[in-house]
Prior knowledge:
The complex is a heterotrimer. Chain A has 11 helices and 2 strands, in the order ααααβααααβααα. Chain A has helices at residues 3-31, 38-51, 57-80, 88-110, 136-158, 160-170, 172-177, 182-207, 215-230, 235-255, 264-278; strands at 115-116, 210-211. The longest helix of chain A has 29 residues, at 3-31. Chain B has helices spanning 3-29, 33-59, 66-81, 87-90, 96-99, 105-127, 132-152, 172-191, 193-203, 205-210, 215-241, 251-264, 269-290, 306-321, 335-341; strands at residues 293-295, 298-300. Chain B has a two-stranded antiparallel ribbon with strand order 1-2. In chain B, helix 3 (66-81) packs parallel to helix 7 (132-152) and helix 8 (172-191) packs antiparallel against helix 11 (215-241). In chain C, 34% of the residues lie in helices and 25% in strands. Chain C contains 10 helices and 10 strands. Chain C has helices spanning 7-11, 61-68, 91-97, 114-122, 135-141, 143-147, 158-170, 188-203, 215-221, 245-253, and strands spanning 21-32, 35-46, 50-54, 76-81, 84-85, 99-102, 176-180, 207-212, 224-229, 232-237. In chain C, a hairpin with a 2-residue loop joins strand 9 (224-229) and strand 10. In chain C, helix 4 (114-122) packs parallel to helix 7 (158-170). The interface between A and B is large, with 61 and 64 residues.
Amino acid sequence: MSVLQSIVDGVALGAVYALVAVGLALVFGVMRLINFAHGELITAGGYTLALTAAFPKIASVTITVVVCIALALLMERVAFRPLRAASPTTTLVATFAVAFALQGVWLIAFGPEGRTADVLASLNQRVFEGDLDVRWITVTMLAVGGLLLGGTAFLLGRTTIGLQMRAAAADFRAARLLGVRADTVISFAFVLAGLLAAAVAILLTVQRPLVTPTFGLEVTILGLVGVVVGGIDRLGTATLGGFAIGFLTSVLGDALPADERVFLPSFVFLLVILVLLLRPAGLFARPSKTAVERV
Amino acid sequence: MTRARRFADGAVEFLVPACLIVLVGVVGGFMAPGTEEDFIAALVAVTIVIALHVFVGNSGVLSFGHISFVALGAFAAGLMTIPATVKPTLMPELFPFLAEHDVGNIPSLVLAAALGGLFAALVGIPLMRLSGLAAGIATLAVLEITHNVLRFWEKIGPGAKTLSLVPETTGLFQATVGALIAAAAAIAFRRSPPGRKLRASREDPPAAQAVGINIHRQRLLAFTISGALAGFAGGLMVHQLGSITTEQVYLDLTFLTLAMLVIGGASSLWGAVVGALLVSFLDSFLLNAENGTNVVVAELTLPNGSSIVILGVLLALMLILRSGGITGGREASLPFLRAALAAPPPPPGAGRAQDERPERTVLDV
Amino acid sequence: MSRPRTWAGRARRTGPRVTDPILEIEGLEVRYGPVPAVRGIDLRVGRGEIVGVIGPNGAGKSSTLHAVMGAVPVHGGEVRLRGVAITGGRPEDIVRAGVALVPEGRHIFAGLTVEDNLNLGLVGRRAGNGHQVDLAWIGGLFPVVEEFRSRPAGALSGGQQQQLAIARALLAGPDVLLLDEPSLGLAPTVVETVWDALRQIRDRGVTIVLVEQRAQITVALADRTYVLTGGRVRATLTPSDAHDTARLVAAYFGS
């Protein structure tokens, strides 16, 4: 496989993981909550696509977005609002619980075999003939990824609600004392997270049409790892971390000889450990600014 | 505190959970074979959760990776107790020294503990410098690596296939003794100087360092002991099931044991035992219900997966309502004994589970 | 009409009766876990007054302000704004009711620009009440804030940040401005600038509650100053007491 091919595929996967990272980082920013259950939003999106496969594509996609956002808001209202005063590690375990509970729900509702969601399978076709294998899905991943990331950046940087979210992320009490509504800002973060999760689900099902109860879990673990490795305190570094993990996973997978490819996760996670040891606050975080958790 | 009071406290802290463990073992003996299995499983769960508690409860650092030590112990003990005559046929790729030898039950458990401890020490040397989120992710990475290697490296095990034909040597007696050993180790460590230093570092890391406590060293010690106990528990587990797969010692078990620990109360042995027993029996009951079971008056068949949903909801509720768990993280104590020896009330920090102390204002998010 | 809650209250000197109170605190109790911070205090703030609250560290001054803002849970007593109880309200609602806090340590958003910080101040403004926020006047009060508009707020000096924090709080158009130790870490000349601004703010009709550790300058500025120690009001001082050291000491340490 050529280097260029590897890079193209890497960037595409990186874009998807960047979207996962943004969803995680937005919620962490306003709530200091690491949402392990973010993956269940993605799984929900996948199942919705599977169930609406017979509908026109636009309807299917729209319904998926609505479902993901609704589930995100429900999660916040029922499970996370009571945990607003807890520490990040407590909430991590709680979101872990919510994630597993939801996986059980998928198991009950849809069984372990999974459903097929081939709504946008047509995107698997090649864009042009030649040595470089670029499919429409790759182009879509890059386009959608870029659009959503850019949109989020614009939202945060240039709108009032975005300003409020940035303030809340920096200093929640001071923000509230100025009149920033906690509920509004947090709900908005979850709406965005739901939207991003839906996008990830839609993009992933093109190349992985089988949706099982653990569909979103693997992506979330890697996304979460990427966010922490990049630096969870800031949206920019978290997104970069997510992108880096996606890119690395893809490129490393191409680079490894065939019989060692099964050990790809081990290589990736070894690198993760290494990075965390050298830069526990995050690879891209500024070393002087952050409070390093090290003894 | 007088020596007598200290000793009495320690004795009570061990004896109360120990009696509960023994009670479970004894009652299990009167049960039908199917139910007896549930009791044995509960005791094995107790051992795993005690192992987890020794580290998480004392250090306040979350570890997602402990099941990798259980996995190592389970696969090692299981592999080495399969008769050498059968091994090569089951797993042709094995390293010769693994395929040609087998050991007895007790040696395999010792081996499991040793391997667990060794692996934990190796992993701990770099990792114990981390705290909080970084530690959680790093230990998760260890779990992922262990799972990946065990699943695909056919020179050391069955790979993706089930490791079967393991002699089922874990009966009620062995499971009970195993849990008791773990409990004794937990209390011994907790009351030892390293244990107390570690708990000091949990409450206030900078203050602990200021008085000369080497946090890294204390954590590493706890991690190693914890890893050894976890490996030992893995050995018990594989000999109870008679087989093991990599998926059985991966995320689901991580979630389950974490739930047990948190629901019971992470920072005390009593919490670990109570939580493990409660959740284990509940889980067994729910799993049986998924297959159709008699609940006193009616037939109850739950759909597959209900047990996970219910446990997940329970865990979330417990964290919301009472993050210290059922026991509030307090060790077992007998009130009259306490009063008789006039022990001082526990310090305010004793009730917290493994999370750091959040500020109390409404504003805090 | 409220009466003192305990026998001790009868002996307390609460100062002259305030005829048109805009903010009333009655029997306020605040606890952090088992630790009491405010043990039942009565404060009355009249419209257009500057009221000082002084006392040593841990006296409960900050807790009082935070209790008014709804930032800490109240365990007893009541807070009334224009006669209406606001106890236990949420900070974001209380801001919109017309009370703004300049917190201790300023808590400006260092990573955001000065302009962003100011825009955040507008978030809590009381729209639809006919309340116009006079941006020009606020800009005139603190010209340095205008000058640094597009710089990150973290680049400002301590004194400039304090001015930014006050400007930001004023942008919500409050009737009552609470300040928590604004002179902390500021050089005397800067303190004088801030004190001057406070006088102008009061002249504009905004009521001010000023919590400080520096007794003399506060007593000199305020119409009345409560002395808080150990979570209780011990005495009330007037500007004429500002240079009476013996009186100040007696007030602080009890007589």
